[in-house]
Design a protein that fits this description.
heterodimer, A: 112 residues, mainly beta, five-stranded mixed beta sheet, four-stranded antiparallel beta sheet, B: 118 residues, seven-stranded mixed beta sheet
Chain lengths: 112, 118
């Protein structure tokens, strides 16, 4: 499974755009990149998933360069409720035993 | 749509006692996972089921942990005997074996059971 590296923590003011970058140098051809969000005392929650270029949904955007060795999660205009830990994961969903290997994640603190 | 249900939410036991956790996945999800999350770390996969068969249990400490998924629906995770280092949150997750309706491969997590071993 590809290893990921992301910042341990980030601070941001309310209303700003936050970009969290994840490095995954040994990503495999069939791997997808997925981001999860976790609030205290809750299980992780799926945010977004992509394979290449750009993916956007109602809560975030995911930017993946052509070499796929990194990815950036973009959260537009964060609010206090976005304070959470964000995990970047890579894996092959078609492998028959699709698994998620979580690192320590990035703890995002949104400041009023 | 009902989410993944887990019980109990909290459990405090003494070391060497036994404990069991229960999980009810989202209806129709064939794949079920148990994770252990120690404070300050990301979740670690313990075991993965596909229907009622084990897909991967390579990180399950089999001398003290066991899990089953009878009839391919509910699952239980047991620890016997518990050690101090088993204090953690135990998360259950479920998913379709393939991409869901939105075309993504998504795991749905329950709220977890917080275990404290004293």
């Amino acid at each position: 499974l590809a290893k990921t590296t992301q910042p341990i923590s980030m601070d941001s003011y309310e209303g700003q755009e936050v970009n969290i970058t994840c490095s995954h140098n040994n990503i495999a051809t069939n791997d997808y990149i997925t981001w999860y969000q976790q609030f205290p005392s809750q299980g992780p929650r799926f945010i977004i998933q992509g394979y290449k270029t750009k993916v956007t949904n109602e809560v975030a955007s995911l930017f993946i360069p052509a070499d796929r060795k990194s990815s950036t999660l973009s959260l537009p205009r964060v609010s206090l409720s976005d304070t959470a830990v964000y995990y970047c994961l890579v894996g092959d969903p078609g492998a028959g035993s699709y698994q998620l290997t979580f690192g320590k994640g990035t703890k995002l603190s949104v400041i009023p | 749509e009902a989410g993944v249900a887990q019980s109990p939410r909290y459990k405090i036991i003494e070391k060497r006692q036994s404990v069991a956790f229960w999980c009810n996945p989202i209806s129709g999800h064939a794949t079920l996972y148990w994770y252990q999350q120690i404070l300050g770390q990301g979740p670690k996969l313990l075991i993965q089921f596909q229907n009622n068969g084990v897909v991967d249990d390579s990180q399950l400490p089999k001398d003290r942990f066991s899990a089953e998924r009878l009839k391919g629906v509910d699952s239980t995770l047991k620890i016997q005997p518990a050690k101090l280092e088993d204090s953690a949150v135990y998360l259950c997750a479920s998913s379709f074996p393939t991409a869901g309706g939105k075309g993504v491969y998504e795991q749905y997590f329950g709220p977890g059971t917080r275990l404290t071993v004293t």
